[in-house]
Amino acid sequence: MLAELETSRGKIPGSKMLWLGTRAASPDRPFEAAFRAVGSAQFHAAARKDPPFQPRTWQKANPGLDRLPDLEQTIRQEAKRAKVDPQALASFRAL
């Protein structure tokens, strides 16, 4: 699928590709390779040392959080689950 998307750009003059997603754990993943290949990228992420259950940490990774109350409520619910479930914690930290 990735190859199809990349080669289709050449069929329409001036076309561009926009990638949205979460950072991969491995630098070998296609998403990470795309970031390296592009001359510019915009990232929003909390530092690994930031406390995962603090709203200020969520704000770093989600700069529009103060304008999206439903998103904040969802993150709060996910945080509750992540506090008691180690597998959920790994997913929560990735987002």
Short descriptors:
95 residues, mainly alpha, 49% helix, 0% strand
Architecture overview:
- By secondary structure, the chain is mainly alpha-helical.
- The protein has 5 helices and no strands.
- Helix 4 runs antiparallel to helix 5 (86-94).
- The radius of gyration is 16 Å and the shape is elongated.
Short structural summary:
With 95 residues, the chain is mainly alpha-helical. Helix content is 49%, strand content 0%.
Overall geometry comes to: elongated
Sheet/helix structural class: mainly alpha
Question: How many domains?
Answer: 2
State the total count of DSSP E strands. 0
Q: What count of helical segments does DSSP give?
A: 5
Task: Describe how the helices and strands are arranged.
Elements: H1 2-8, H2 30-37, H3 55-61, H4 69-84, H5 86-94
Helix pairs in contact: 4-5
